[in-house]
Amino acid sequence: MSPAGCPHVNSFKVDNWKQNLRVIYQCFVWSGSAETRKRKAKSCICHMCGAHLNRLHSCLYCVFFACFAKKHIHEHAKSKRHNLAIDLLYGGIYCFMCQDYIYDKDMEQIAKEEQRKAWKMQGIGEKYSTWEPTKRELELLRHNPKRRRITSNCTIGLRGLINLGNTCFMNCIVQALTHTPLLRDFFLSDRHKCEMQSNSCLVCEMSQLFQEFYSGHRSPHIPFRLLHLVWTHARHLAGYEQQDAHEFLIAALDVLHRHCKDDNGKKANNPNHCNCIIDQIFTGGLQSDVTCQVCHGVSTTIDPFWDISLDLPGSSTPFWPLSPGGDGSALNGESHTTGATTLTDCLRRFTRPEHLGSSAKIKCSGCHSYQESTKQLTMKKLPIVACFHLKRFEHSAKLRRKITTYVSFPLELDMTPFMASR
Description:
five-stranded antiparallel sheet, 17% strand, 422 residues, 13 helices, alpha+beta, 19 strands
């Protein structure tokens, strides 16, 4: 699909296409009322094999339901030249010409509106809109003005997760991954073809987890199989002790990366030459420029990364004065307050030139001798989903403490100042 979007959507956008799409969402996807849910259960079967399962899709051009997993909907699209179908599980639009799930602003707006209507009919969100804070919560709200009261028009998560004994570190990462649209489209489109002999594939388990999250069930999910597989493949996280969420994220991405296969069917062992879904979404390129202080020759290396670890003010490592926006001006989409630290500040420190000193001389290829140098890190390639890790814990021979510095995040982050210039 081109960066401008799917060019095949316009063939559907004729006459009363909005009303037709609303009817499909109301009757066959969200099904807010008990009557529509019964009608969906009776009518939504594959018109080729009669199955209820196998990821049913509905043709957007005619009344036709068929399996996605068995490619019955693909056969219909090819014979009728009906290029668009809708996933009846979560409402995603699939284009058979692009061979991918697509995004269209107008269709997405209709989907969200119909989902809200269905939730309202099912009573989802009523307990949130009528929520009243306790005395303790009122006290917390007074001391934390940044917190917001949950209202009826807020975005509600798909499903909760049961804590299996200090597993909140895992649950918060799972919630972040399941709400990532590109991962959702991959795991719900049955693209993974597993060749592992036993039930030890983390990609298969994540596929099942996405199915559970987008099944429409409102009861909390118990991720016991996921926890067991994490213990199996990342033994340093095994046990019921509290673990670090960032460490779990990297371990999970690493195992998913190893269990995925690229387009050529080769094992994804090299992060530099991998086309698996994890690397497509999370892998960026970090450029390191080492400049000789004598001849000013530059040695450049580019390494892949899944996350960026950022230092915070308040640690024993030297920081720098706050950005010029600290006087209340707006910088990089952020509204600064006096003394506040921002994500932009942390990124600016991460990408500033660092003098390595006389104790860390390197052999310059231009001078052919060991010289003092400076080092600067910049982004050569940005990942689709960027992960920033704030170094909240400081460890040294004499000190071990948590850094509680408040860091504000902008709604929109301009990464241009931190990109490599060459």
